[in-house]
Design a protein that fits this description.
The protein is α+β, with helices and mostly antiparallel strands. It has one domain: phage-related protein like fold (Alpha-Beta Complex). It is 27% helix and 23% strand. The chain contains 8 helices and 14 strands. Strand 7 and strand 8 form a beta hairpin. The longest helix is centred in the middle third of the chain and has 27 residues.
Length: 322
Amino acid sequence: MAAGAVTTDQVPVDLLRTEMIRGFERYNEQDRNFRSIFCTQTTGSTVRVYQRTKAFRRMADTTIPDLARLDYQTISLKAPIRYGLKAGVTQAALDEGITAADVREEHTEALQADQRLITQSVLYPMLNDGGWWDGTAAPPPYKSNAFVAGHTHYLGYNVGGVPTLTIINRMRHHMAEHGWTGNVVGWMHNNNVENIENIAEWATAPGPMRTRQMEQLQELGFGPSFIAGGVPIVAEDWVPENYLLLTSLGHGGKLCRWRNHEGEARDGRLQMWTNDENVAYSLDQDYVRYGFCNTVALRSGGVAAKLDAGAWADPAATVWDL
């Protein structure tokens, strides 16, 4: 191809290539997404979650206190998954005519695809059995509350996808009895939100209070649709239809762990390679994303409900593009 190729609106291809590289660097520096809200990044293969086990005991005048053990739960983190995407502009496209905006959109869509991957990766463990307390182990006691091994934060209600205030209050109580009372937010598919926005018992409900966490959500484009039982409900179509997810934001720590590799991928950044142009491609980028939010670490900090069945069932595997 002749040197100094330009688009139909006379923008040099070399300038667009430089622009993409600089924009990519800024993209990695921002890191404002579901991972930044919910995940602590780590390169470890396990995470310790400490339990509330220390307590004072009565003593006589010369008694030496017994050693109070700090118990913890060890959660294994699965190995990161490697995802790849290729984007580019062919030489034929430049020969036949393509604008600078078209070229930029190729790169922009690749970055948006990365955001979609991150969002799904974070939501997946929250909406599949085994993330929150799931009835297989007894949660640690909190204040005067004790729990049995069958205690679960995966609930089912056969209400046709329209939760009542009673259901939302019950879900919020499931978190509060473990100490998770601050900045609780609900997530629900737009179709379900539309079905309940005009229900009379919520029509006059007050709006959500402004908090640092709510402002963070709004910066990412998430605005609450309504408030129910004191919980702001955010419409988010990555939550499958007929499911409701309640999570805590910024109270007690980040709920999930995102595991990175220990080598060059240890920082969790999106990787990009700009390949040399050839007879097929004028612009040719390969993108790689390592990592996967494969576990909920703080298992009391959220609760999920299926709203069209009397018992919990995981979303269909086809929901996730992972």
